[in-house]
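User: My collaborator sent over this chain with a note saying "see what the structure looks like." That's all I know about it. Can you take a look?
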Amino acid sequence: MLLSDSIKAYQSELDLMQHRHDEGIVSGLDVARSLTLLEQTKAQQMSVMASRALYEHAIAALLGQSASSFSIPAAELVAVYPAIPATLPSQVVQRRPDISAAERRVAAANAEIGVARAAFFPTISLGALGGFQNMGGGALLTAPNSFWTLGPLAFLNIFDAGLREALVQGATAKTAESAALYRITVLKAFREVEDNLALLHYLGEENRHQSLAVNAARRTYNLAMNRYREGAVSYLEVIDAENVKLRTEQVELSIETDRMLASVGLIRAIGGAW
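Assistant: Without extra context I'll predict from the sequence alone. Here is the result:
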């Protein structure tokens, strides 16, 4: 939509340039510059349409439909982001399939995993404002009653002391290994949540500043065009203002796209909606 609107505006400018040229007000140079800007923007539009077609075909395949008959109408981008609560309890991450699978592996190796489950999982809050809130101070994932810091000796009591030492050591090693893998899985999950929370926070700030830049660029373009019509500036200033306006608008769209991707990434990282 952005490029389509720009093309319409550039076409109107070209028509104006041609009319002013026919009346001897401007030179053919201004007409040529206006035509160059129009055709360059049309070329950008074709590149975007090609990329859009590929994404559309990929969506059709995911939906089990034929790409040739599947179509998504072009529409104005309406950025709607899911509201993130002030804090996200760490327990929401337990819904992730990889954490559930790792926990089941530990449960298979340690019959008493249910008893220690509350201490096994860290109690923290993941802040929505960048994801840097640790309600437990420096105790994140290192609390003394955490499953993974107890060490293999903490689980010796679940084995019959009469078994051979080799069996005890083997079972203990298996339990310790599954606990270590679980810890790695949990750490990875928290990192992914933190990453996307930070992205959402900073991309939101970036988008706010970029919106101000877009508004300023649009005002600059309007002023340049008005001054050109009054004969106060050359058409080069208009072209420069147009290019800046289009670039800032494209950057704004790119930031909004990144925010949407980060929102999806956060939903995936916590295993679903919060």
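A starting point for your reply to your collaborator: The first helix runs from residue 2 to 22.
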